[in-house]
Fold each of these.
Amino acid sequence: MGTIIKLAEPDRKGSLALEQAIAVRRSRREFSAKQLTLEQIGQLVWAAQGQDAPRGYRTAPSAGATYPLELFVVMGDGLFHYLPGKHSLEKLKEQDLRGELALAAWGQEFVEAAPLTLVFAAQFSRTTGRYGQRGIRYVYMEAGHAAQNVHLQAEALGLGSVAVGAFDDDSVSKVLGLASELEPIYMVVAGYCR
């Protein structure tokens, strides 16, 4: 188990109306090297998979509350796993994996240039165990809900973001060292725009 970084409580009020965030949200692929603050990172991961006490539901809907998604954070200072119940990051690797991740994403250079990439990985059996093969659809739906939360949160923070679905699954799994039951299914790249 790696170092645990406790994140600040997420802001639940915000400074940008939801309607404004929806209106201005666009895919952005040109990022500056400016690093994000721990507060911004905490807000983005909370938007993706945050847990609200006391019932433990997350910010994105999940079929039967099966929560098949695991969220990984790739930054210049390493690889982290988001722990929703603790609103914390667990450091898994020290090295900068952004270049390798960009290669796994078929050479999309902005993956390396951006300060942060969120990788959603799914353990499909959590949902298919309850819903059979139809559960596969539910997992992808959940990933879409979670990613849209991230895009809207990025806008509210004055950041840009872009969805990435073009990548080699096995290569991403290898770069991140994912357990065999986890499959990468979606990435969101975020940062300050140039």
Amino acid sequence: MSKEAKARIKINKLLEEAGWRFFDNKDGQANIILENNAKLTQTQLDEQGDDFEKTTNGFIDYLLLDNKGFPFIVLEAKKEEINPLAAKEQARKYAQSQNCRFIILSNGNLHYFWDLQRGNPNIISKFPLPEAVEGYTNFKPNSNTLTNETVNADYIVKTQKPDYEKDPRYIDETHRHTFIEENKLRFLRKYQVRAIERIQEEVKEGKDRFLFEMATGTGKTLTAAAVIKLFLADRKCKTGFVFG
């Protein structure tokens, strides 16, 4: 089997696993079409699976539709041996022509999700669900919720063990260290708290893009967890993306 066919078959499976549909079924109407094509037939899909570069329309990319049937995401597919990022500009032009904000770049093994309004492509471990992207599109953080959230050293700990302060072993300073270690409680350092506060200050100024630059060993993962909790304070934050 050609490498092109292998990539196409993998991408087809990833789309179906994420809830995208090639054909109308009990879950809804088809929401995958091909560039310059209408809804697929089984014959067309089988043809692409065998060797999609020799189909009637040549090398074809996917166009994913929203729940109203409008172009939503361009999925640019490449051979397995080609880095999907090589198709960035090609995909951008096509997405703009279709009035699509989102792009997925994939060679079947490596995948990127790209929001044209939010910077560069990000690696994803699997394709996003249709409702996840729609939720992401409609998500607008409540600035008051974000800026009024109190962030202290025990911000993460209160999620791990909300009643930790009432535990006798924590109250007893001679047992406190052991209690913290046994429960793997993660307290924020002062500079980590300050990093979260800086986000809140920037949100108050109307900013919505942030970059942390932290040295190895300074706790980027814990800081990221605090950022996630901060945004989850706004209950409308339900994107459902998996990055990694």
Amino acid sequence: MSAEGTPERHPHRLWIDGAWEDAASGATFETRNPATGELLAHVAEAREEDVGRAVRSARRAASAPEWRDLDSHRRSELLWALADLLEENADELAELETMDNGKTLFESRRVDLPGVVENFRYFAGMADKVEGQTIPVSGPYLNYTLLEPLGVVGCIVPWNFPLSLASWKVAPALACGNTVVLKPAEQTPLTALRLGELAAEAGFPPGVLNVVPGFGPTAGSALVRHPEVDAIAFTGSTDTGRVIMREAAETLKEVSLELGGKSPNVVFADADLDAAVRGASTGIFYGKGEVCAAGSRILVERAVYDEVVDRLKTMAESMTVGDPRKRTTRLGALVSPTQMERVLGYIDAGKAEGARLVVGGEPIEGPGNFVQATVFADVEPAMTIAQEEIFGPVAAVLPFEDLDDAVEKANRTIYGLAAGIWTRDVGKAHRLASRIQAGTVWVNTYHRYDSASPFGGYKQSGFGRDLGWRAALEKYTRTKSVWVALDG
């Protein structure tokens, strides 16, 4: 790897008020390469005092004329400039993402980074279109609304798509005129820190974007509880989402939560089975299965059940596990030893509860957190591997009898993030899409995202939406109604 791509090239301190800062305590934590175990960097650990500094910086920036009074067209230009810098530095950022997360370099460079650039450009185009309405009301009055920024937004993002999910929140928050304190996951802080540095290079005023790496119970909790933070945008586990709701209630913050999933991928007998099996395989094995919307429950109509299971076995066997930087690798390393043990624990649970292990199920010997692509068949809906989010490359395959049975099994979960449907019958696809309790339903495809299309969950997968113009306006602005008397 070239010298300019190594983590040592950039500071790993806190990014506060447009400058690198040490943690007040002097504490640091390690971030390691999941594929090799090697130490990448010691990163400054933000705690309550540091989060307070970042929030005060964001509050000052929100009130300062350099940002508060900035022409919306200029705000658009700044976001576009940041998108250009992200594109120019895409190779370096992809390397950092792969080293920090363990995902394949192909995914980082060819999927994640283009999406990050697209997000900033999409919301750059939105920045000068934040507009209210003129409303006809009774009496001699002019009534109109203003959409105003919330103020300081705390963005807390997970480790599975570190820069992508940061862009889902940071770009629209800035486009709407807010300032941001971003807390990346402690497992994957490197690209978030680089984002802060690039924002300054693009011309954003100091304090508009602050980055505070740290741990959830300290840095994350301090951000949620801080009285000067106006809103929290969070992506992560459902358990953490519950904690955030409780802690945010003390200061009545606006909260949006994109949480866990146990998404069904429903394959009907009349589907194009070649496409369906590829889609089901991608649905669970893309990103090592460390994807909130992973199609981890594959529901297959009884008439083609055995055939689909056999085909999934073949697909899983073809998933090369290993060095994420190799072009031939299809499954990189799980993000941490802790996550690998969690995944292996679920595999053990699947065996113990009577599911049939079709393929995989073993760790890869040697350094790194590698687990084989795994398929369980004959899974019952009540089994642990059919109910709990594994967040790894483990597919649970369940048979179903007809459309009603598919609906019942698809919805038999606390989650409702996403779903897939595979059929040649358009009417059947629409009927099922309307009955599945999920925020996103893909038909004859899976894992499709676009900056213009809102994404979020039902039930315990959370509330609020990322992406999309209207969703961003609802999430990152507040409405002010203005009345003007016209009769003198």
Amino acid sequence: MNPWSQFAPELVTDLYELTMAASYLREDMFGDATFSLFIRAYPPGRSYFVAAGLEHFIDLVTAFRFEGDSLQFLASTGKFTTDFIEFLATLRFTGSIRALPEGRIFFADEPLLEVTAPIIEAQIVETLAINVLQLESLIASKAARIVHAAHGRSVIDFSLRRTHGVDAGLKAARASYLAGFTGTSNVLAGKIYGIPIFGTMAHSYVTSFEHELESFRAFARAFPDSTVLLIDTYDTLKGALKAVQVAREMAAEGKALRGVRLDSGDLATLSRGVRRILDDAGLNHVEILASGSLDELKIQDLRDAGAAIDAYAVGTHMGVSADAPYFDIAYKLVEYEDRPVLKLSSGKRTWVGRKQVFRHYDDQGKMLEDHLCLADEEHPGGEGLLEEVVRKGKRVKPAAPLQAIRQRVEGDFQRLPEACKHLREPQRYPVRISPSLQDLEEQTTRKVRREELG
């Protein structure tokens, strides 16, 4: 049986979301609730995040409904009453969502989005919100660090074969592209999202021929306008000399070798040796692409070592965000029926009420500091970051083109202070809490302690 044929977005939820919803229905609780989605803390070595996944979440929420097989399955579990199943059959998302647009840089404790809707609706989309926005923001944040490390050189996503599933591979391709990657090896992502696709050859291709030179010639015949040769199967420098021979044969036919790829060994030393071979042969135009367990720290180290690399292909470490494979992300109730709410659990603080983030810039246009405020506060001179993206269950405006999101990331990254971009021991960006928000937090805390703890 094909599991994709049974994919039902409405069932992408944890069981306790439905059990809570059933109880809310039984208790006639239909008041408006606001939930805030935010990241509590930075992973080691990180100082910023890149927002991604919002457009996918909006698509899923605005089309949200329980139908057919989903209702039959829930009824078959024996956990829910007929009244609740009938209620789900009529359930639609009718609330509003305020969110950071995709591509904005944000920081710990700042809401990625806030959902305000009748409590059953707002509660039941929790798992979906966390799942979608965490993964894509996780990958976009990792990819932005890699793009920064590459220092203007092209970076290509090679992660599909190592991501945690087919869907994760698609999201990694999109999230890395919006963060500044040049393209992807993922052909399906190219079709769905319009991302440029790239690919060369594998070592198996080279070894399938009796001689390495024969494999190079065959590939050049098949792809004369985009020939990139993998030259490290046997010996990288000897492979480079064979690439020079093929390049000369191509030139005689009016074609040009586009590049060579290194996938193993001391990439800094080998790349310099390959560059000398190519330049001595008058092949200054031929680019050197490097791959092989790369991440932002290795790319920075290669640059510091004077590597002659023109482009990088990054796979596993980006596709699974290997150094930080998850965020401490939470979706918490902060208001119900105009009443601010919080929990007192140790180490899991939440800021109460509906909120807005105001960003301030210095005279040079660099980010200066953010202020986390209540949603109805004014903050002269500050840029309000959260925008209404869904109203009464409908999109407020069409989805942003992927190219526009890329430009948004680039613009925010240029304005991010340099000290916050450091890949090792970055400076933390200041996020101030408004006095009004602090007062409301303290009042709510005192009220909860008095009423719940005596």
